[in-house]
Description:
CATH class of the largest domain: Mainly Alpha
Number of strands: 21
Number of helices: 12
Largest sheet: 8 strands, antiparallel
CATH architecture of the largest domain: Orthogonal Bundle
Strand content: 15-25%
Number of domains: 2
Radius of gyration: 26 Å
CATH topology of the largest domain: Transferase(Phosphotransferase), domain 1
Distance between the termini: 52 Å
Amino acid sequence: xxxxxxxxxxxxxxxxxxxxxxxxxxxxxxxxxxxxxxxxxxxxxxxxxxxxxxxxxxxxxxxxxxxxxxxxxxxxxxxxxxxxxxxxxxxxxxxxxxxxxxxxxxxxxxxxxxxxxxxxxxxxxxxxxxxxxxxxxxxxxxxxxxxxxxxxxxxxxxxxxxxxxxxxxxxxxxxxxxxxxxxxxxxxxxxxxxxxxxxxxxxxxxxxxxxxxxxxxxxxxxxxxxxxxxxxxxxxxxxxxxxxxxxxxxxxxxxxxxxxxxxxxxxxxxxxxxxxxxxxxxxxxxxxxxxxxxxxxxxxxxxxxxxxxxxxxxxxxxxxxxxxxxxxxxxxxxxxxxxxxxxxxxxxxxxxxxxxxxxxxxxxxxxxxxxxxxxxxxxxxxxxxxxxxxxxxxxxxxxxxxxxxxxxxxxxxxxxxxxxxxxxxxxxxxxxxxxxxxxxxxxxxxxxxxxxxxxxxxxxxxxxxxxxxxxxxxxxxxxxxxxxxxxxxxxxxxxxxxxxxxxx
Length: 504
């Protein structure tokens, strides 16, 4: 491997890894201290926006104190290839520890939550937001957790490599505002902390799936907290609130995790990450204040000390999500130091409009005339463009069965990742007191062109479909079987679609 001899005053020994920011090397200071040196990629080095933000973020990061923060010990933002150095400490990452020892119990989760809250408190006091807190960025050292890589994400986020509407971070730990490309403040780190604790308890806050699927669920669906012990479940749920202003502050979390004096942690000794003559596994930063650095002031008291809205607080009123570039770039954190880039495709064209037929199912159900097809104005989002919501109800015209109805509701516009949207819409139509008779299954009907997702309960039968322009769910009476519902849903869809001749 072709390695540089030196980076600054540090002698390079070997490469540790590469990622979104650049290459990470194991190196030694002139006094023999082991460090990890991160060198920016050439395209980042050529970007003046990255250099300016990198310089500001490094200066702030060097001043962070605290027991559990990881600190930059040296850096040169003005070098031909900007770099930063962090001291090396032993210990597995939280993700590695969970893989070998399994989920944590409630006392261990409380200690972890308290330690990470202290770390975030110190970071936020210096005006920094981590933006990528996750189990892989937390080193479980013998004297407690250390948080890695704070202060770097924002420099990457500011570059021309990440266009408007981009999100930097790791799906599954990204706050809703991050996933949508909105302004990000300290509350995003609290959301990530909640997701970290769910992972430490053995769960996954937003399940498995594609990066886009995880981001979608973070924005639109409630987290899965079934693995979290009941004693701290309300605290974790508060961390994962969709509204940033409704999440606790790190200081408030300390009071919730350890109401009294902190219990003494169980002494655990981990094997060194860098055994003599062995392979380098992971480098981390040690929380040692630089000789010329001054600690940041204590965090200022928020007007409401148990809630926070972030550095760039989102307005409390319902806001319209801002539009995004047609080919946004999402930087997703990958293995090692940094991330990888995921290029998102442009939105699809409009191929059809929607109409509300006067009747359905051979005239048995007639439009009640009370609800228009498109009642609200169009809105944009990260996964959708020019979207309108609609609800249309059809009542049974048969004597003695006029209380029955078929309802069609959904959203029309331009969609990406329609299966996630379709399934979410169907779940939101389920009744809490229903008993499922037939679990949701996907039905591919001949010549349909789309899949139909159907489910039967004691009170209703649901069928949903999704395509590039429409996501809808049809609610039938419980007398309809899943097969009947799927067939009738296809007919309803065919009757509602009005093709656009030019496809624009």
